[in-house]
């Protein structure tokens, strides 16, 4: 048998291929990975040195996260002269990260000096890529005086090196009592065949995975891949039984309002706001197996053009009065415990419906959770490596994407 | 001097378009091809390793969604032919002086964003919405009847979104039929039905083929309709790609899936064009 020699043409072809390979290899996405767990002690000084107030600032936030009339921001401008451009541009964490990552990676400004990001998978991505400016705590006296001490011990940003909370929220179950008359108390109700095709779950993999883990009797913050697979099987069972109507993003509120779902995974403040603004009477419960607690955090992108103005606003929102009025509107967990008493003072000064509403917010365990509530709330799954995060997504993503 | 100018002119004319193609087509395509063969994660960066397993793995995980997308695309095209042919026929032959107005009316919805229109359908078709609620309270439909979330809802949305792209090419083909040809058929004692079957329809076929090209490809790669009108049982490949790109930052698998979708569609389109005579179809598609 004669073996064909490598002809000229073949050599050319191979050469072409490897050249093509080199060419392909040149176009990629560069990472910025550097471990941030222990930032250099002079990082704060290095970042803030020589930075001055510019008199303006761009703030990127989630929708429905401030009174549309922006009373707090108006007050801020009055007091400091700093103009704030406020945009509700963040709808989901993943897309937000994908949108700003190329600019941050190239060291360019993203057009915002302050953004509100959840302690989700993407928080870790922002942090570990070195995209967040280290905070100068000497510029945050209100935060030091008024914030709940527990935040300093958060697992996603210990010591609040890069972020301070904007608001926290509870993920639990919401239901329509006009459709469901039995009491809803546990996660098992989301698996109840009686509500076949009327159950809503979250599309966000952290949220979905958490509830799968809790339903399987596992603690999300201490879970590993084996636990995730058990949880995924539990969720698959719910899906294959035709119980889940759909996996939702923020649109679940709408689906609940239109009768598409009767019972759904839900965020506490949304249900409050929906009931107030649309006169609905939906119920929100923390399931007996526990719910989860998450925190949306204010952070300054490392490429911000007006970081000094941004950190000033961060601190301003921790002023007791400002934190109180903000919580009165958004009805999410307030990071300032002193706001509860302040809100009661506001209630005492108000009358009629306003008074009733303010009292109900001040007394709500969903805005000011007590120890009893905190005991039933779990933290998100934590990822130590990017590989773990990928594994987590590979386990849960196929459930959402049927 | 003149000669130089004359030889350069065609190149200069092609320059803007060529640069456009290079910048917005060739460069992104090569980048995506490269990404589809890389390994890594968004924080530490992706490295080119020729990791072709991105293709096999993502295809193993999501072949159902890929096949579903092609099936939805095909069903959409068939439904569209059935719906669009009579409309185009009526405008072409009975539209009279108002033809332009009718065509304008067909295009009218395009003045409103495609996503907004799909959201409106979502509001109309929802379980307790204005369409289903009265029928349910009158007892005509059972209480648990639902449209949203089903395959039919998604295909309905696709049909709605792409209807003009089928009407217009069929209309153009019908419009070009010489009326004398039809007259001749009648003169030869063909019944209206026969003249339609033997004369009009064959002459309109290139329009139908072009219409299929213009609807099958966007319908198969669509994700808005499935996202807004469907459920987790109707996920299309576009949604998978979207989730992998934007939610998971898993660029390599997302790129691999995008490339696979593109390859499947290209192969499909070329074999379709081949079977029907490339020149004809492309010519009609171009007009």
From TrEMBL, chain A:
Keywords recorded for this protein, A-Z: Periplasm, Signal, Transport
PANTHER family membership: SPERMIDINE/PUTRESCINE-BINDING PERIPLASMIC PROTEIN, SPERMIDINE_PUTRESCINE-BINDING PERIPLASMIC PROTEIN
PROSITE patterns in the cross-refs: PROKAR_LIPOPROTEIN (PS51257), TAT (PS51318)
Keyword tRNA processing (UniProt): no
Domain of life according to the entry: Bacteria
Chief place where the protein resides: periplasm
Subcellular location: Periplasm
Protein name: Spermidine/putrescine ABC transporter substrate-binding protein
Keyword Acyltransferase in record: no
From TrEMBL, chain B:
Keywords: Cell membrane, Membrane, Transmembrane, Transmembrane helix, Transport
Regions crossing the membrane: 12-35, 70-93, 100-119, 153-174, 199-219, 254-273
Stated name of the protein: ABC transporter permease
Record's subcellular location: Cell membrane
Membrane topology of this protein: Multi-pass membrane protein
UniProt keyword annotation of Nucleus present: no
CDD domains assigned: TM_PBP2 (cd06261)
Organism: Actinoplanes sichuanensis
Lineage, opening ranks: Bacteria, Bacillati, Actinomycetota, Actinomycetes, Micromonosporales
Top-rank taxon, per record: Bacteria
Family from the record: Belongs to the binding-protein-dependent transport system permease family. CysTW subfamily.
Pfam families, A to Z: BPD_transp_1 (PF00528)
Record-linked InterPro entries: MetI-like (IPR000515), MetI-like_sf (IPR035906)
PROSITE patterns named in the record: ABC_TM1
Stretches assigned to the ABC transmembrane type-1 domain: 66-272
């Amino acid at each position: 048998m004669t073996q064909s020699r490598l002809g000229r043409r073949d050599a050319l072809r191979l050469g072409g291929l490897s050249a093509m390979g080199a060419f392909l290899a040149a176009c990629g996405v560069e990472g910025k990975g550097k471990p941030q767990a222990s930032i250099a002690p002079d990082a704060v000084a290095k970042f803030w040195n020589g930075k001055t107030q510019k008199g303006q600032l761009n703030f990127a936030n989630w929708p429905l996260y401030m009174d549309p009339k922006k009373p707090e921001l108006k007050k801020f401008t009055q007091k400091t002269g700093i103009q704030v451009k406020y945009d509700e541009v963040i709808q989901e964490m993943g897309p937000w990260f994908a949108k700003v990552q190329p600019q941050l990676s190239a060291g360019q400004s993203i057009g915002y000096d302050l953004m509100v990001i959840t302690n989700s998978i993407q928080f870790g991505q922002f942090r570990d890529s070195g995209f967040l400016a280290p905070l100068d705590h000497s510029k945050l006296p209100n935060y030091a005086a008024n914030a709940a001490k527990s935040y300093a011990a958060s697992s996603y940003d210990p010591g609040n090196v890069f972020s301070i909370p904007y608001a926290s929220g509870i993920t639990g179950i919401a239901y329509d009592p006009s459709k469901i008359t039995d009491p809803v108390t546990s996660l098992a109700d989301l698996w109840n065949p009686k509500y076949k095709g009327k159950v809503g779950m979250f599309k966000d993999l952290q949220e979905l995975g958490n509830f799968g883990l809790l339903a399987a009797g596992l603690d999300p913050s201490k879970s590993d891949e084996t636990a995730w697979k058990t949880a995924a099987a539990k969720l698959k069972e719910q899906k294959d039984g035709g119980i889940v109507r759909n996996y939702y993003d923020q649109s679940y509120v709408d689906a609940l309002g239109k009768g598409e779902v009767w019972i759904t995974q839900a965020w506490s403040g949304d249900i409050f706001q929906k009931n107030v603004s649309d006169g609905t009477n939906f119920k929100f419960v923390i399931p007996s197996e526990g719910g989860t607690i998450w925190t949306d955090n204010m952070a300054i992108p490392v490429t911000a053009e007006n970081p000094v103005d941004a950190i000033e606003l961060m601190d301003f929102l921790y002023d007791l009065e400002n934190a109180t009025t903000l919580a009165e509107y958004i009805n999410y967990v307030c990071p300032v415990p002193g706001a509860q008493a302040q809100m009661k003072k506001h209630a005492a000064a108000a009358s009629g419906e306003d008074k009733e509403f303010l009292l109900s917010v001040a007394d709500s365990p969903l805005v000011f959770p007590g120890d009893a509530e905190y005991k039933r709330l779990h933290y998100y799954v934590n990822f130590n490596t990017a590989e773990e995060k990928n594994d987590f997504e590979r386990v849960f993503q196929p459930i959402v994407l049927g | 001097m003149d000669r130089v100018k004359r030889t350069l002119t065609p190149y200069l004319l092609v320059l803007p378009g060529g640069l456009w193609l290079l910048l917005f087509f060739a460069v992104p395509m090569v980048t995506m091809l490269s990404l589809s063969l890389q390994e890594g994660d968004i924080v530490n960066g992706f490295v080119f390793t020729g990791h072709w397993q991105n293709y096999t793995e993502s295809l193993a995980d999501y072949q159902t969604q890929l096949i579903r997308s092609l099936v939805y695309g095909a069903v959409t095209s068939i439904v569209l032919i059935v719906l669009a042919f009579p409309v185009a026929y009526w405008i072409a032959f009975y539209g009279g002086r108002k033809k332009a107005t009718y065509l304008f009316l067909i295009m009218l919805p395009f003045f409103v964003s495609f996503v907004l229109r799909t959201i409106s359908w979502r509001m109309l078709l929802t379980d307790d919405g204005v369409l289903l609620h009265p029928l349910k309270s009158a007892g005509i439909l059972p209480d648990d009847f639902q449209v949203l979330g089903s395959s039919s809802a998604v295909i309905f949305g696709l049909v709605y979104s792409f209807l003009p792209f089928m009407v217009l090419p069929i209309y153009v083909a019908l419009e070009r039929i010489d009326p004398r040809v039809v007259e001749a058929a009648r003169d030869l004692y063909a019944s209206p039905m026969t003249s339609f079957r033997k004369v009009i329809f064959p002459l309109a076929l290139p329009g139908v083929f072009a219409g299929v090209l213009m609807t099958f490809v966007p319908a198969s790669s669509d994700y808005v309709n499935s996202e807004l009108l469907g459920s987790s049982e109707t996920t299309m490949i576009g949604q998978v790609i979207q989730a992998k790109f934007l939610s998971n930052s898993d660029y390599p698998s997302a790129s691999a899936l995008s490339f696979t979708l593109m390859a499947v569609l290209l192969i499909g389109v070329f074999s379709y064009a081949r079977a029907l005579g490339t020149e004809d179809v492309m010519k009609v598609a171009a007009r």
